């Protein structure tokens, strides 16, 4: 198999596992808010997730030193406060499925930022995939019928913008320091970003945490799978795929989130949302086919 095709196949497999984890987690997070405040839960997820990653660094004897501190700090703030903290806030008032979908406007912000910042242009059949995905998001969002949860929806979009900026910065850092260890690149931003998240959780008033079995399980699910493993899978894929394509492929997660919320939380999607999910699935299939094609060989003269 062509090495490039093998790399892209591995990256797409990582994205599939990632989207299954992140997709179902919208139901987990929404349900956990019965037992803890949004910032309390976000702080536990990010801080303990960072500790798990540093344990992995120690056990596997990988480099633990902090590199590029300003960039790592900004990445941590974007990923932990801007992404995780804001999306948890959005879940307080909004449904799990709707919040998932709006957070995943991230791919479009990534495409927008990747053009001037990374020089990654959308071309050829990718435009059809992008168009289908944009239409799918519009059908699900249904901007002509915005409901009372407008503030929650705005927070969800801001969470997606923060995630997109962190994706661009990660790609830039990898270009500048290609030898930087992947787990190190995940652990330090998570730890640095968890510190302001802990301060916010302490500062914002919230009812006492109820340490029910579900909350403990939700924290473990987020720390081990979503907070550690999923970010590793995301960075692994991001290093092997263009930032815009990786972000577009990960859009399967909100579809899973909507379906899981439908089954478990009885958030029934309407016809517009179902049409949007179909368009997004078409977009994902097309992107996967395009990425599995071998790169065209240069013609010698």
Explain what you see.
The protein is an all-alpha fold and 301 residues long. The chain has one domain (3-205, 216-292). It is built from twelve helices and no strands. The chain has helices at 3-32, 38-59, 69-93, 96-103, 106-118, 126-141, 150-176, 182-203, 213-240, 243-249, 252-264, 271-292. The longest helix is centred in the first third of the chain and has 30 residues, at 3-32. The mean pLDDT is 84.
Number of DSSP strands?
0
First CA to last CA: what distance?
A: 27 Å
- Compute the average pLDDT: 84
Strand content: under 5%
Structural class by SSE content: mainly alpha
**Count of individual domains:** 1
Rg over C-alpha atoms, rounded to the nearest angstrom: 19 Å
Estimate the helix proportion, in percent: over 70%
Order of helices and strands: HHHHHHHHHHHH
Overall outline = globular
The biggest sheet, with number of strands, parallel, antiparallel or mixed sense and barrel status, is: none
* Residue runs with pLDDT of under 50 for 5 or more positions: none
* Number of discrete helical segments: 12
GO cellular component, one term: plasma membrane
Subcellular location: Cell membrane
Organism: Methylophilus medardicus
Membrane topology: Multi-pass membrane protein
Please give a handful of descriptors for the protein shown.
EmrE-like, 0% strand, mainly alpha, EamA_dom, cell membrane, 301 residues, transmembrane, transmembrane helix, 12 helices, globular
């Amino acid at each position: 198999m062509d090495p490039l095709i093998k790399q892209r196949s591995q990256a797409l497999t990582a994205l599939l596992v990632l989207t299954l984890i992140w997709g179902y987690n919208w139901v987990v997070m929404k349900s956990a808010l019965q037992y803890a405040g949004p910032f309390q839960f976000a702080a536990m997820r990010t801080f303990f997730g960072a500790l798990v990653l540093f344990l992995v660094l120690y056990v596997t004897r990988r480099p633990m030193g902090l590199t590029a501190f300003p960039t790592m700090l900004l990445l941590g703030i974007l990923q932990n406060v801007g992404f995780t903290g804001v999306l948890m806030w959005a879940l307080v008032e909004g449904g799990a499925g709707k919040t998932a979908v709006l957070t995943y406007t991230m791919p479009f912000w990534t495409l927008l930022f990747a053009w001037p910042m990374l020089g990654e242009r959308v071309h050829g059949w990718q435009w059809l995939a992008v168009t289908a995905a944009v239409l799918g998001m519009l059908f699900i969002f249904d901007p002509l019928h915005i409901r009372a949860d407008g503030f929650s929806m705005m927070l969800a979009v801001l969470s997606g913008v923060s995630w997109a900026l962190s994706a661009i910065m990660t790609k830039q850092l990898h270009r500048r320091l290609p030898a930087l260890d992947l787990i190190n690149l995940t652990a330090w931003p998570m730890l640095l970003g968890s510190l302001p998240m802990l301060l916010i959780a302490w500062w914002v008033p919230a009812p006492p945490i109820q340490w029910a079995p579900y909350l403990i399980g939700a924290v473990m699910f987020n720390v081990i799978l979503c907070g550690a493993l999923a970010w590793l899978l995301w960075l692994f894929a991001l290093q092997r795929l263009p930032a815009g394509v990786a972000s577009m492929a990960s859009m399967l997660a909100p579809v899973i989130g909507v379906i899981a919320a439908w089954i478990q939380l009885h958030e029934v999607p309407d016809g517009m949302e179902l049409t949007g999910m179909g368009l997004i699935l078409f977009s994902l299939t097309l992107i996967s086919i395009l990425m599995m094609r071998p790169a065209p060989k240069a013609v010698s003269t």
